[in-house]
Design a protein that fits this description.
With about 425 residues, this protein is of the alpha+beta class. It has two domains: about 300 residues, Bira Bifunctional Protein, Domain 2 (BirA Bifunctional Protein, domain 2), CATH 3.30.930; about 80 residues, Anticodon-binding domain (Rossmann fold), CATH 3.40.50. Helices cover about 40% and strands about 20% of the residues. The chain contains 15 helices and 17 strands. It has a nine-stranded mixed sheet with strand order 1-5-6-12-11-10-7-9-8. It has a five-stranded mixed sheet with strand order 14-13-15-16-17, with helices on both faces. Strands 2-4-3 form a three-stranded antiparallel sheet. A hairpin with a 5-residue loop joins β3 and β4. α5 packs antiparallel against α10. The two termini are about 45 Å apart. One of its GO terms (cellular component) is cytoplasm.
Length: about 425
């Protein structure tokens, strides 16, 4: 017997109903903010995916050659494909561009709780605006989406420019900076300490660890400014973060200078959102002003985020989605009776009702047992005598009450 590939999942109808419900609630918020949906191909050239991260990412991807010998990769995230799409078809449109997506992504990694080889991302990109208002809008949108689905969460906001300003003054190379950021993102502080001592020495290492420990409300920024008064680029980043936070409408967040983000293209404000149960990190994003230029475009500011949709679902309480479904039961296997039942079903569906027709030829009692086991709220019983008088029997499966009702009234049963 064939098994599903490792790290993938099959979703039952009940699970899909919940996933679609949450997806649509998130879509509502993206569209209220004026974002328009796009979709990119499931696979891209490997060169595009590896452009910013380098060859070492190969082992984390599904890479293959097409029949023309071109090397392709299943997309591991959505920002790089969106930037490619922007450069191909959208760059001449008036700015800013507000785009959102919902798509499956793929990474070849060890499956564990909240981490799959096929997973779904839902997110947005705001392209063409360098104002702190853009950063704040993306933060507000990310939080509003989670509020709209009733999720309890914590937001941590940082700024890569703070650490970058220190590392630049310490003459740290770009390659060394990338390694430092990756160690911070993995929270591998032991290896980070060893590496910093190796390239910077004990005293400078201590300053960097002091920065990473800064967590709290806006009040910590004045203290941070005092510590970093000799680092003008770091002060500039702190001022930028302060201005962004002025426009964030939700006050429940933590400033956390220990956020580095795993992807190398982020340049400024970064943030992560954590759920209170299940897989912890459910959202991440930030500013990436250099990525479009790296991919061959004109320098263009951009900021965005992605929800880990599967991780959101792990943080959602069991949903009781109210859905009134109706089962139509012809009382016997008679072609004319079935045809009339089909006409009734068609009329109800056109009125927006969810309707199934009993097609297994069950006797009435068995059909009612089936309706009960499937959770149908109402059943319409179609009998010859009642039908000849323009009526059917409507049974409420919750109360057990049943009554005759005219077919003309059925659009409001």
């Amino acid at each position: 017997m064939f098994q599903k590939p490792r790290g993938t999942r099959d979703f039952l109808p009940e699970e899909m109903k919940k996933r679609r419900f949450i997806e649509n609630k998130l879509r509502e918020v993206f569209e209220r903010y004026g974002y328009r949906e796009i979709l990119t191909p499931t696979f891209e050239s490997f060169e595009l995916i590896a452009k910013k991260t380098g060859e070492e990412i190969r082992k984390q991807l599904y890479v293959f050659k097409d029949h023309g010998g071109r090397e392709m990769a299943l997309r591991p995230e959505m920002t790089s494909p969106v930037v490619r799409f922007y450069l191909n078809e959208l760059k001449n449109l008036q700015k800013p561009l507000r785009l959102y997506y919902f798509a499956n992504c793929f990474r070849y990694e060890r499956p564990q709780a909240g981490r799959f080889r096929e997973f779904w991302q839902m997110g947005c990109e705001l392209i063409g605006c360098e104002s702190p208002l853009a950063d704040a809008e993306v933060l507000n949108l990310a939080m509003d989406g989670l509020i709209n689905i009733g999720l309890d969460f914590d937001v941590h906001i940082g700024h890569l420019g703070v650490l970058k300003g220190v590392l630049e003054k310490f003459n740290v190379s770009e390659e060394e900076e990338v390694k430092i950021r990756r160690l911070i993102d993995k929270e591998d502080y032991e290896s980070l300490e060893t590496y910093l001592i190796q390239i910077l020495g004990e005293e400078k290492k201590e300053l960097i660890f002091d920065i990473l420990k800064f967590k709290g409300g806006k009040e910590i920024l004045d203290e941070l400014k005092e510590i970093l008064k000799e680092f003008p680029k770091s002060i500039e980043a702190i001022n930028n973060l302060e201005e962004i936070l002025e426009f964030v409408i939700h006050d429940k967040y933590t400033i956390n200078l220990g956020i580095a983000r795993g992807l190398d293209y982020y340049t400024g404000m970064v943030f992560e959102i954590y759920g209170k149960k299940g897989a912890k990190q459910i959202c991440g994003g930030g500013r990436y002003d250099n990525l479009i230029e790296t991919f061959g475009g004109e320098p263009t500011p951009a900021v965005g985020f992605a929800y880990g949709f599967d991780r959101i679902m792990m943080n959602i309480e069991d949903l009781d989605i109210e859905e009134e479904s109706i089962l139509i039961i012809p009382v016997k296997k008679d072609k004319e009776l079935i045809k009339k039942s089909l006409i009734i079903a068609d009329k109800l569906r056109k009125a927006g009702k969810i309707v199934e027709l009993e097609i297994m030829g069950r006797k009435l009692r068995k059909a009612l047992d089936y309706a009960n086991s499937r959770g149908f709220k109402k059943v319409i019983i179609v009998g010859e005598k009642e039908l000849s008088e323009g009526n059917v029997t409507l049974k409420d499966m919750i109360t057990g009450e049943q009554k005759l009702i005219s077919i003309d009234e059925l659009t409001n049963p």
